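One-letter codes give the sequence; each number marks local geometry. A record appears below:


***
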Amino acid sequence: MRTFPIIGAVRLITLTLPRNRYEVISEWLSAISYQLSAVSYQRSAFNLLSKNMKCVPTSFLLSDDRSL
């Protein structure tokens, strides 16, 4: 999962800062939680879209026409 490198980078950044460490940690954690919630919204939207795309003909899905 992609969150592990982000958490490692947050730890590295917060360890190098001499002051206001807890404020920076809280800001980074809120940013990470916002990104994770955005990913979950994208996944739910994709699932909803894939359920609705079952009625679309496969020739439309397989077409390589970029002008659509």
In short: The CA atoms of residues 28 and 68 lie 40 Å apart. Residues 21-52 form the longest helix (32 residues). The chain has a mean pLDDT of 68. DSSP finds three helices and no strands in the chain.
